[in-house]
Amino acid sequence: MKKSCLLVAIACFAISAKASHIDSATVSRIYDEILEKGRVYENLHYLCKNIGPRLSGSTNAQKAVDWTKSLMESYAFDKVYLQEVMVPHWERGAKEKAYFKLNNKKQLVAVAALGGSVGAEMGIEAEVVEVYNFNQLKELGEEKLRGKIVFFNRPMNPKAIRTFNAYGEAVNQRVQGATEAAKYGAIGVVVRSMTTRIDEFPHTGSLRYDQSITQIPAVAIATKDANLLSSAIKAQPTTRFYMKLNCKTLPDVVSYNVIGEIKGSERPEQIITVGGHLDSWDLAEGAHDDGAGTMQSVEVLRTLKSLGIKPKHTIRVVLFMNEENGLRGGLKYAENAKLTGEQHLAAIESDSGGLTPRGFSMDASAAIVEKVLLWKPVFDGFELNEIGGGGGSGADIGPLKPLGTALFGFRPDSQRYFDFHHAANDVFENVNERELKLGAAAMTLLVYLIDQNGLN
Amino acid sequence: MKKSCLLVAIACFAISAKASHIDSATVSRIYDEILEKGRVYENLHYLCKNIGPRLSGSTNAQKAVDWTKSLMESYAFDKVYLQEVMVPHWERGAKEKAYFKLNNKKQLVAVAALGGSVGAEMGIEAEVVEVYNFNQLKELGEEKLRGKIVFFNRPMNPKAIRTFNAYGEAVNQRVQGATEAAKYGAIGVVVRSMTTRIDEFPHTGSLRYDQSITQIPAVAIATKDANLLSSAIKAQPTTRFYMKLNCKTLPDVVSYNVIGEIKGSERPEQIITVGGHLDSWDLAEGAHDDGAGTMQSVEVLRTLKSLGIKPKHTIRVVLFMNEENGLRGGLKYAENAKLTGEQHLAAIESDSGGLTPRGFSMDASAAIVEKVLLWKPVFDGFELNEIGGGGGSGADIGPLKPLGTALFGFRPDSQRYFDFHHAANDVFENVNERELKLGAAAMTLLVYLIDQNGLN
Fold it and tell me: Which domains does chain A have, with CATH numbers?
């Protein structure tokens, strides 16, 4: 029985693989090209070291737009162009200062304003109240929170196998913490950094204000200092916290999605999009988030072109602007697609780091998921074992869903991602060349299989 | 048809999983314990920073024996003891010096004597001949090789998906290079380091002499310098190479395998061994190779004990001595097992680095492989997707095969392993806490499933 089961399964996979047209020689050439002559690692080095941080609206973001456009032009894609989009322009200003007072001794702590936070240029100081969730705010109420600084210290759950699940369970403190605390009269918010490591890096990220609620300043604090602060509060419940933030939001500015295309030979009107986001936070080089995904996406088209593979559908690389603090690029791209009636067969995003590939998540119909699963034997050969529905896709391509586009998220191993996420150590040196290249190869493979076999 | 196939497969897996007795609550407790309260990371820190390099026969190797024994005793395993074994005692001596001469300018290069190499205390200098394989030696012949230094420069193949396959294809240069070159009268050997990275670290490793052939000195050269040397030879075929090695082999010394046990409650006479090797090369801390595997193996028993899990079979952790340059510990362990008629049900080795888990390779009968595959749904839940026959197991447990023991190799992701392998950067800082812990949890899971379900 057991044996027969396995045999059935194996046989089925074999038949299925045959059923779809897979040219294994071309598949090998794709991997060989990228692993042996790939440019993704050198390109990421340029983006990180010659341009660096590239927050929406910054001069560096514009430099990144100009350079990636010229990079695509140097590869002679059939079409390279910019798609205009208005983006938010938030600036951190001079480095933040923060400390807590224990027995009248100032203990400096490492903090970074959350993206979009209002400033506190004159500095604010108040008693600090530690909480783990929004229910506790309700229990404490205005009486105990008015005029105070709220410290959200719920850690990412170390027991989650995929770190993104732990992130999803903890990140509401960062996104809505300031608004929730302000409802009870708090004057500022300190949020434990979103990482399972105990380190000295504040991990920033965006917050969301509710226009009907007072906007109060909010910072991320390094986990090591979060632990210090927590013990201080336990030792002395009246511990006071000081923070000075020099950030401000300026008027929106013009920016761009950077787009390159290889025209389809049989179904040019049907588009397969592959992309990542070009903007990054301002604290580091945005090597993993998302320099890796953008350079991998460019590599997909470079590889098809350099191997002389003529795709049936139009393959389009899109470097989205403003994923981190607005998603304006992704929204504009889908809006334009709808307006112009473009047909988007599939979209693939890489925005989970340049780490060793595990597979792809899918946000598509059961029929499409089933069809893609027929290629599993091919994926398995490259250690892409996690192919399945669920797990979403990517923020920038999400808005394409109403157009009936099949969405795919490149899924690298998640264990190290939050060591660097939105922090000063998200630099080129923390990206491994083979892991980055294998990710680009996996994405090219998926694009190739979809292009050759379609999804219907 | 396609759908029915998948359904059949899924149904079968479900039935199979039921068929074997898997207590999912206990499985979760194993992962939670290690991820939340695990000691493996702190223990590896101690081994790396308080003891450090621990080459067979060295004082540090003895310190590692003493400390790991006391560590196991502190966990109150049912039995903790040492198994005596004579090991080789090779010493590097003072740091090597090497350079090549280009236009009479000395270009210093980073080299490290291969383990077991004879010394060259007075230094040797000769014309250097670059080759890529042993056939080229044959073609060049004694006429072109006598009195020369041979430079083996065949790189690890970057196109291999698993780096261990590339290592397997290239490592004969390091292991047999000196003997093969000596057959044609060469007086020394320089071997390109076994890594796909271009860096400044010589990666050492053992060589094997043939007693009937002259023993000539051999060094590993950093890949960056290997490329320099190669271009120099192309520019000037008469380029000369100088190397001075202060290494020597001393008489064998007494050392030990360190062993701990939890006695089985139902089949105490049947043993499940889990282990790694305690010795390391002398250039670094041996964090990945194999501090990780030893501390993970100890963690398996610590976890079972701290969760109050009473195994049916006897679970034994073995920290093998001398894997790197002799395998004496592994041979002694199997030899003793045979002499005393021990029954070894299964053995699991972790010696591929403390990196993110991928699964397990198996060297066992088809029936056992089939049985273990029934647990695939459990493994998949923890991203252990690569469970299968082939791929060998581990050097230290290999000698148990003639006893009919089912052999398992813990298989972490291989992409970063050779960045550190046998080089000065194999240090604690290059081990990720979550990756290390997940490896220990995966090993504990496999031991638990084998113990609960047996293998017949």
Answer: 5-90+251-453 (3.40.630.10), 93-246 (3.50.30.30)
